[in-house]
Structures are given as structure tokens and as C-alpha cells.
Amino acid sequence: MDKPLPADARRWRCRIDNMDCPTEERLIRGRLASMPGIVRLDFNLLDRELTVLHRLDEVQPVVDALLSIGMAPRVLDGVSAPPPLPTLAGRQKLLLALSGAAATAAEAWAWVFGEETAWPVIALAAFSILCTGLPTVRKGWIALRHFTLNIYFLMTLAVAGALIIGRWPEAAMVLFLFAVAEAIEGLALDRARAAIKSLTAMAPETAEVVVDGRWQVRPISDVAVGARIRLRAGARVPLDARVDSGHVVLDQSPVTGESVPVEKIAGETVYAGCLIVDGSGEATVLADVGHSTLARIAAAIQEAQAQRAPTQRFVDRFAHFYTPAVVLLAIAVAVLGPWVSGGSWREWFYQALVMLVIACPCALVVSTPVTVVSGLAAAARRGILIKGGVFLESGRLMKAVAFDKTGTLTKGAPVLVDVVLSGNAVDSLTRRDALRIAASLADHSTHPVAQAILAGWRLQAGGDELLPVERFEVVPGRGVAGYIDGVRWQLGNQVAVLLSAVESLQASGNTVAVLASAVGDEVLFAVADTVRAESAEAVAALKAQGVHPVVLTGDNEVVGKSIARPLGIDDIRAGLLPEDKHAAVAELHARYGFVGMVGDGINDAPALARADIGIAMGAAGTATALETADVAIMDDDLRKVAEFIGLSQQTCRVLAQNIVLALGIKAVFLALAAGGVATLWMAVFADVGASLLVVFNGLRLARSQAGPERTKRLKSSAAR
């Protein structure tokens, strides 16, 4: 993990269009890291962004240094939208196709007529090189000027040597296949980038704002702190704000962990992204769009890209020693080969060129980021947002997962669970009649508790119609009222006569609504949160993976057990405050070694931060939870916790396969080159061919679909 940023360091961000692989990253690090005043360099290859943390009076020296290595920066001010990323344009595709056709034709001519230096061969090869090889040659020249042994330098040197000894077709084919490998890598990054970006398009784009005394619809990017906005039922709160007038009922379970929507009146705060389920009002903006929930998600993802995955760190360290060692070996072959074997210098110089191509750690270096990004893309397509390769790789290590209850294992939405008659209603009403009256009133309200009562009536209506309501009215803060058959009824939160019954229902985790008449009838309606349909399946899948599930809840033990036990969870920690959840996760870590925490609210943030991997419920999760967590489940499907672990296992298998494949192929052809029997064509397949193999192998992750069959297998295994 990166060290904390010093208090006096400043941040400068830029976009570098041609920084799309670790090779450019290392070139930039080599140029900037040693400059005075540079504190840290953070790279986001996915978005081609560089963040420089510095103590410089001005950043012009940084700009000049980047320009000197061909990395032209475009400053990102954090206010305006970043410019679109470059893609594989039609012109580039055409040049790639022409280059491949020309290189193939040159090889065919040389093979048929046995003349590698005939003018048609040279013309075709030169045309192929001009189509796709110039960027590689230019980058190779930059690397040479800065004494950097990177892929571009070695490719350029090998191609130049091949041209000197008359191997024109092979030189052209080397550059063409290398360009193909880079194009495929770029497409893989584009695919991953598009998948991840699509997940952040959830915020409302506009808000109703007072401008010159009139309500106007404006983009939220134009709404400043202190502006007055309108809140309407059915919409999401566009920005964090303070209610000035009116009242709204918000589904803010992701913020507070409350399973029942709450009413907000003047002076209270509403949060961006919360759904307004009832009411209307006006509010004053407290935070601009740059500090909204989704803005913090985007910032968290961007910062996560600076953290290399463990395998990538290993590969970088290996390549640091591997490349110079093979270059020295190639020089030794060129110099000592003729003396040892008696062959011509031309033959051994050719073998040295072969080794230079093999020396490129392209397959090894490219395989890791492509595989990791492909894994991130596959996760994104499944609705799992992973904030960096380090978490993608380490997910497979989880031995225990702690779940918050409300809004995580449960829906955070109330349903009718009981009807209790009290007062005169015991003698004058049946439960069915009482429910019909309450539903008739509830039909005129959009409050979630009222809708739960209405839904409860519809389940047992049996074709009976609702009763007509006369003189219906909303009683602010108390509920709704109206006349039915000449009797005034009120449905809401007024104090009930039968307090013991209310307390008993509330003790079981229910919210109580009261139906009261003018003649003393009182009926209690208990509504409660419901377990998510997929929770039991998610727990079974985790158990099948050998993961121990735990419930951490702020509710009492009775409520906690009523939810957890039917799901197959026996380890229940109830009555926990946020700091208690933090301590519980620490205890689980000491017992199991590697622990995940799944939560959705501010009260879960300490536990999410303490866990080895924090997993936030993203569709309804708070900005704080998403900012703290390492993984976000964007559609709140808990089965994806097990999918995340499975994807982590699959990613690590592919990474291991790619490393073995890349090193194995190179070892074979290095031995052939040292023995004097390898050809430049073999080197092409050993390096660029191996690059394509590992890239395609890594892209299997991006093409993989969600895992219903895997989930079924896990359930079947758990049943056995």
C-alpha cells in the first residue's frame, strides 16, 4: 500500500494519450522519480492518467521532462470533463491491415524465390515498416537517448540489425506482429474501461434550481453550494442538501442502516442519491457535484489504479533483472560465438539479434495488466466494482465474511407481518375489515409503510374492492386521514392505547403503524424488513467455498437470530455499535487470518476499513461505505460475493498460466538461440507470438459471463 501523502505535497493530474502500458510507465518513472521536489507518482493506465504529488513551485519542469520522452501531457483540472480517450481509429486499422498484407507478401516472395534482398521484397517490407513500425522506432530512439532497456529499444535494435544483414521480411513481420499485440492490449483496456465507466452513470444529471426567482432545470455540474433546489417524490436527491421547507420521505437505508424510510423536515439533511419515495420540498445545496457519492466512487477507482497487483510487482522486479541479463548474453553470443564454434560473425550476429527479440519481456509484462484489467472488466460486467488488482488477486484468500444485516442480508424495505386489534376494535372489527379500511387510506399515500399495508391487503383481498374515502387529508408528520362510511379514520404514527402490544411488536424489529377511529377503535399494523431472496443462496455458496459467514448487527439478538438462523448462519454478533463492528472484524481476522466485510451504511465504514477486503452494497450504498470499501456490488446481489471470490481464484490461475507460458517459451528459444539453431522467425513467435497467447488467455476473463452454473455447483456441493 502507498504511504500517506505528506501534508505539504500538492497534486497535479494530466492525461497522456500514448501511456497505455507498463513500458511507458517505467519510462516516465525513470525520468521523473529522481527529480527534486517529486514526492510520488500515481499511474492510472486504464484512463491513461498520471498524478504527480510534488513540492514544486511550478510544474513546468515536469511538463518539459514528459515532453522530452515523447509523453505529451494534457492537464486535468478536475472541473471540466476529461477529453475522450483515443481509440483504435479506422485509419490505424487500415494501416495495420496494409502492414500485415505487405509483410506477408514479402515473406511469401522470399520463400518462393529464395531472395530476401530482391527489390520487391525490400519495397514490401519497407512499406510494412512505414505503416506500423515508425511509432515503435520513435519510442526506441527515445529509450536509447535515456539509456532505458525497454521493449521498444530492443525491438528497434533487433529490427535495425535484421535490416543490416538483409533479413527484410523478418524485420517487417516482427514490427507488424508487435503492433498487433499492442492493438489487442489497447482494445482490452478499452473494453475494461467502458465496462467500468458504465457503472458510474447512475446519478441524476439535472436538478430544479431557483434562478432569478424562477425554477429552472440545470445540469448538476452548474449547481453551486448554497443554491436552492426542489425535491420531488419519485426522483433521487441530486446533491447533498439541507431541507428548508416541506417534508420528504427518503429511502436512506444505505446511509443510516435504517430499514424503514424516514421523514425529513426543515433543518434536516438529505443525501445525494437517496430516493424520494413521498412528499416534496425545497432544500439548500451543501456540497457540489465534485463531492457527490459517485464522484467519490470515481476518485476511489482512480486512486486504486496506482496500486500494482502483487503479481505485477513481481513481474516488474523480474523484468528489471531479466532484460539486462539476456542483452548481455546476446552480446556474448555475438562476440564469442565465432571464436567458440568457428562460424561466421554474420551467423552469430543473427543469433544475437534473435536473442534480443527474445529478451523483450513483452509477453511477461503485458500479460499481467491485461489479465488484471480483463478480470476487472469481467467483474464490472457482473456488477462487481473492484478498486484495483490487489483486491482482485487477494479475494481468493478470504476465510470468513462478516455481513451487516439491514440493507445487506435484508432488503431494507418493509412488508406487513401482523395485525393487532385493540380498544373498541376488538369487538367491532375483524382483522380483515381493519386491513381493508387501512388499505383504503393507504391507497392515497405513497409512504412505504402505507404501501406495505396496501400490498398486504392485496394479497388477501380475494376480489374485494377498497372502500371509498371522503375528505382525505395528509396530516403532516402524523400520517393520513379520511372518512369511511361516515367515520373518521386516521392511519399513521399516533400514540396507541395498547402500549404493551406496540412495545412487543417493536421489540421484534417491527415498525408499527396505527389505525384509529373517532370512536376509540385502534388497530396496530406491524411492518418489518424482509430477507433478500438471494441471501440464503449467497450464504450456501460461501460455505461451499469454505468461507465462514458471520452476522454483525446493531439490532437486538432476537431480531438478529430471526434473520440469520434461517439463512444458515450460526455466528451472530448483535447489539453492535460501529466501533463494536470494527472490533468484531479484528477478532475474526485474528481467528481466520483473512476476513471480508459486507455492508452498506456509514455505521459499517469502520468495519469495512478494518477488514482485509471491504465489500460495499453499491446500488444503495452510501458515499462513505463505497469510499471505504475495496469492492462494491453495484446491484446489491449478495451471491456476487462468492462470484468475486471465484473470479479472484480464476484470475490468479490465469496469471500463473501466463507467467509459466511466457517464461517457458522464452527459455526454450533462448536455448535454441544459444545453440545457434534459432531463427528470427522463431524469435518473433517466442516474443510477440507469446505476447498474443498470454493476451488472449488473459482476455478469457473479460469474455467470461456471470456464474449461475458455478453458483448451482456450489449449492449442490453445499447440499452434499
Instruction: Give the assembly state of these chains.
Output: single chain
Radius of gyration: 33 Å
Strand order of the largest sheet: 12-24-23-22-13-20-21
How many DSSP-defined strands?
24
Tertiary shape: elongated
Helical percentage: 40-55%
The main sheet comes to: 7 strands, mixed
Beta-strand share of residues: 15-25%
Determine the structural class based on helices, strands and strand pairing: alpha+beta
- Poorly predicted runs are 253-259, 706-720
Kindly state the mean pLDDT as a whole number? Answer: 79
Provide a count of the helices: 26
How many domains would you count in the coordinates? 5
Ends apart, CA distance between termini: 41 Å
Primary descriptors:
single chain; 720 residues; alpha+beta; Calcium-transporting ATPase, cytoplasmic transduction domain A; seven-stranded mixed beta sheet; 50% helix
In brief, what are we looking at here?
The chain is α+β, with helices and mostly antiparallel strands and 720 residues long. It has five domains: 10-75, Alpha-Beta Plaits, CATH 3.30.70.100; 94-196 and 301-375 and 656-703, no CATH class; 206-291, Distorted Sandwich (Calcium-transporting ATPase, cytoplasmic transduction domain A), CATH 2.70.150.10; 380-410 and 532-648, Rossmann fold, CATH 3.40.50.1000; 411-531, Calcium-transporting ATPase, cytoplasmic domain N (3-Layer(aba) Sandwich), CATH 3.40.1110. The protein is elongated, with a radius of gyration of 33 Å.
